[in-house]
Amino acid sequence: MADVLLFHHIQGLTPGVVAFADRLRAAGHTVHTPDLYDGRTFDSIQDGAAFSQGEGGPDLEKLADEVAAGLPEGLVYAGISSGVMQAQRLAQTRPGAKGAVLMEACLPISGEWAIGPWPAGVPVQVHGMDADEFFAGDGDIDAARELVASTDDGELFVYEGDQHLFEDSSLPSYDAEAAQLLETRVLEFLGRI
Fold first, then answer.
1. What residues contact residue 15 under an 8 Å CB cut-off, 6+ apart?
2. Looking at CB atoms within 10 Å, which of 54, 140, 146, 154 has the fewest?
3. Consecutive H or E run containing 23
4. Which of 120, 85, 115, 90 lies closest to 103 in space, CA to CA?
5. Is the distance from CB of 60 to CB of 46 less than 8 angstroms?
6. 3-state secondary structure of 172
7. Nearest to 152, CA basis, from 117, 179, 121, 127
8. Other beta carbons less than 10 A from residue 114's beta carbon
9. For the Dienelactone hydrolase domain, which residue ranges apply (predicted)?
10. Class of domain 3-192
11. What is the DSSP string of 39-62?
């Protein structure tokens, strides 16, 4: 069974993120869900962004590094939307990554914003909606295509729809059908790690 470090999205560690983690746990996986917002959740993406990116906001990179330092190296790093920033960074830079699951975001592996190349031998899944203003509109889907093409064990799953945070059952953006398919694919991925 996999040992997963799951980073929440910009609205915080919502009940929907916890429920997703709990379903992975029910399948036998160990899932760590650090709360990088210290208990705060937000009703909108804009409110979450104002907190996390505003003056006095949390140092997400430092907090993520501290959480990871207390865990074994052999992790699957997972993130939802803004949580992908930490998950992908750690998967690419921390030794011993077993895999990565990047939901609704993807950083480029080349160019100005790149962390560097994808590490050899680290499988990755990327999930997002084809008309999501952030995933498709901000170029993350193109970064995901580049990442998947660069590795022998990469998968990109694109779902029909325009919702962002579609796997979070506690938000209005929840899409039950797409979320179930995503969860099935993630469980298959974790099952082979």
1. 169, 170
2. 54
3. helix 15-26
4. 85
5. no
6. coil
7. 121
8. 13
9. 4-192
10. alpha beta
11. T-B-SSHHHHHHHHHSTT---HHH
DSSP 163: -
Per-residue pLDDT of 72-86, as tens digits, reads 999 999 999 999 999
Cα-based torsion angle of the residue sequence 4, 5, 10, 16 in order, rounded to the nearest 10 degrees:
40
Q: Kindly report whether the global pTM for this prediction surpasses the value 0.85.
A: yes
Residue 82 vs residues 7, 26, 37, 180, 192: alpha-carbon distances, Å: 8, 25, 13, 21, 26
Where do the domains of the chain lie? 3-192
- What was the pLDDT predicted at 168? 98
Other C-beta atoms closer than 10 Å to the C-beta of 186 total 25
CA-CA distances (angstroms) from residue 158 to 70, 94, 140? 34, 27, 12
DSSP state letter for 88: H
pLDDT confidence bin for 113, thresholds 50/70/90: confident
End-to-end CA distance of the chain: 8
Collect all residues with Cβ–Cβ distance below 8 Å to 78 and sequence separation of at least 6: 4, 5, 6, 7, 87, 100, 101, 102, 103, 186
